[in-house]
Amino acid sequence: MAQRLKYLGLTLLVIVIAVLGFFQMFERAQGKIESSEVIMFAIGAVLFLVTWGIMSKFQPNANQTIMCCMELLAVLGILMIARLDITANTTVATRQLIWLCVALVCANLFFAYMHDYRVLRRFSYVSMVIGLVLLLSPMVPGLGREIGGARIWIGIGPYQLQPGEFAKLFLAFFFASYLFNHRDQLAVGGKKVLGLQLPRIKDLGPIIIVWITSMGVLVLQRDLGTSLMFFAMFVAMLYIATGRTSWLIIGFLAFIIGCVAAVHLFPHVSYRVEAWLHPFDKAVYDRYPGGSSQLVTGLFGLAAGGLFGTGLGAGSPNLTPLANSDFIYASLGEELGLVGVLAILLIYMLLVTAGLLAAMKIKDGFGKLLAAGLAFSMAFQVFTVVGGITLVIPLTGLTMPYMAAGGSSLVANTVLAALLVIISNQANTKTETDMSETFRQQAIAMLRHRQQLNALHEESASSSSSSSSHGRHSAHGAHSAHNVHVVNNASSVVNAGNAHGAHNAANTSIPRASDDVPTTVSKLPPTASFEEVSHE
Fold first, then answer.
1. Chain centroid to CA 201: how far?
2. Which range is the signal sequence, renumbered to this chain (predicted)?
């Protein structure tokens, strides 16, 4: 109960921050608050409380900090979008608030009906097909639309959708399932080069396929950000699955080669690199398309904010192009200052950290990969956006999760946060199945230890001399008694584990953790050590 009240307090804190922020901004910018806006804010606050109630009922052990951070970021984003609407006389904030309500409804459906995230593993190849179809759908003639030089949108009448945001989720499901099923083969090392153990040639197939797909997105859709994010997510999950640094080095080198080739082959990529390297050069600044004027304007906006910002409604963020989407971080920096944007980055860090903690706690390998991949994709997207605006890296075209204007991005990233909440709930739930699996692992370790002792005894017996046969036989008797003791202990542990397993099978329909234990444990050689078995 204390935990639920703590999360209720965090939810109420988000609502209070939203009310104070909107009141200050509207009073300063236009001197009044419209009744329609008050109604929309009230609906959003009610949905926040409903979300807390549904999580408390259906995901009682979940880390609700994830959703609280997501809601606070969405509120700050809508606050800045509404500020820009006043200057531009538009209604983007109202649409964004509607999309937030839709996203929360989707998240609540996941909380209520997805009790076990492992069901996603059954549809790994279906997820791959859906992800690739969504990723390549903007290339369909008559359906795809090109906006800002990138063909990453599909349009139905007056409405537009960015399918790549949803493709990110489906491909994460496939990556987690594929890498979980094949992690043993991918972890096998090949030859050593300069002290680094490289993978086998035949295991390079998956990373080559994903690299080709990423380069295809870069070439066909002219979208550097999406291709970079997908490839980085796959390489990160591959490293988590295998623990081999060589995969990171190979992935980094592969993408560097692809980017260098793209800079020389495609003008839109070379323009972004030149704008990054020489943003204040007059020829680069005035060039259209591909000039650095947008980037420089955003930098001056950040500089105008100083340490504490100009205050909500007192700056001029509307001077920056795409101030409510690609450059919303610069808009927030102008009115909230360096302290404000650092606080925003801290909220993102809390969200990502909560996701990584869930990945560390969950015992299921598929859940570890999925939670870590989703959290990493969130962190990587924030890094590329902030790094592009602050001249750390070239602009990629990605947008800030939860904050930038756009319904597809908001809904997809809210579902991402909901999945992290569901995984954290199962990670924090203690079940008797976990104890049963512990007994089974102990039994396997004891049996392997017995095999070691038998092998040592046989080797010793074969090399013994006739002169010491009496002493050897005495040692053999003591050794055999020790073996009988080990076997008896292992048998009792197995029986206890089986009893727990039968009890769990009769009382729950959730698959046992043993269903996800690597099959390679049973294939260990007789000389496998206790530490190796425990690691598996």
1. 28
2. none
